[in-house]
């Protein structure tokens, strides 16, 4: 039996370019879908799905707005200029790995240029070189909610097959340029999220979809992403010897609300649907039950000749996922609901919640690890986990975030048990190790970090970085390879 975490376990944190870099309109960067996202303190799911805020008119207006006032992701936390200081803090905590993403529109401003933007490429040269210098392994996501806005406007995002070629060109440039610096790659962040927020994930503008066709177009776009993911997996393996490519799933672990068979059946179907996205990327084919479900819904995906073969041939090397909370499912209507990561479920009476209503469930992480390993038999990597909370800075500049320490401590205990039961887990990167702009609400006040950033929701503040209590705690966890919780 294994005791504790493996020797070279990749402890670290995870970021996304559009939530940290800022520098939205300099050095040749084009607008991305993230640059038109506006601040919204209360997330309504319909809103986030893009049905309220993402219309062609809203986008047109945002394209004309030349400042970052209403658009917090345009400013991020100025990581573009402060990455050295931030990496030094991560190194001080002992990070072995950092997950970041490459902003596609920094390299190809509209997505359709034939030649990349050299200045954009140079930024990531420096970022990855500095990570290597500090002994921090880069884990790089190629698409994390930041496709060039121009592709969204011209093609309705991933709905058009043309975007596959544009993405493949972008990825080839990245593999060729960073082949000596980056070994671990993720293709699409939370590929399943296309169903929950089609604009953010795939540039699909809901009011551009013909009446009654939105769902079908979402599955069509998803198919294009599956094919693109398989093609770039092949390219990565060809261009970078020894490279490892992973898929990335939002692990929306769902329990039946009761043992009533109707609840159990609904839950089973929910979970099968969640797995479907990773199934395609790991097993190389669409699950039969999902194809039948699509057929019954009258959803027809147009596939080019050879697509199925591409999916079958180029599967991923490992499975990465995010885990924040669990949900429950019931066949009954009218039960009290709880919020989750861009999703709602029936409230679980056994679980506490964060200030944003996400239900805290450390055992759910262990269950997720056991389920995923049993199903895929592939190495696993946790690339997002954490707790968004409001932090208070004391007059002496300290921040006592014991709620966050508790959250991590309980999750790490479960993670360790799963590893000791035989799950092959090779790393853990917490979400937002430094405070960043929230993906869902664009808030700064929803803080995940071990490091505090002095900036409020309106963008006021010095941007100074401060160590929270959790900073010192995580440092000890890493130094003891997870023994000292
Ligand atoms: C994940 C995303 O779904 O959740 C991240 O990959 C996001 O980009 C994270 O930030 C937490 O969500 P939020 O809305 O609290 O930032």
Automatic annotation (TrEMBL):
Matching InterPro entries: GH (IPR017853), GH_1_N_CS (IPR033132), Glyco_hydro_1 (IPR001360), Glyco_hydro_1_AS (IPR018120)
Residues annotated as catalytic: 384
Q: Name one GO molecular function term.
A: beta-glucosidase activity
Note the superkingdom of the native organism. Bacteria
Keywords for the protein's UniProt record, in alphabetical order:
Glycosidase, Hydrolase
What does the record list as coiled-coil region(s)? none
- GO terms under cellular component: cytosol
Give the UniProt family note.
Belongs to the glycosyl hydrolase 1 family.
Q: Which PANTHER family match?
A: 6-PHOSPHO-BETA-GLUCOSIDASE ASCB-RELATED, GLYCOSYL HYDROLASE
Q: What protein name applies here?
A: 6-phospho-beta-glucosidase
Source organism (scientific name): Evansella caseinilytica
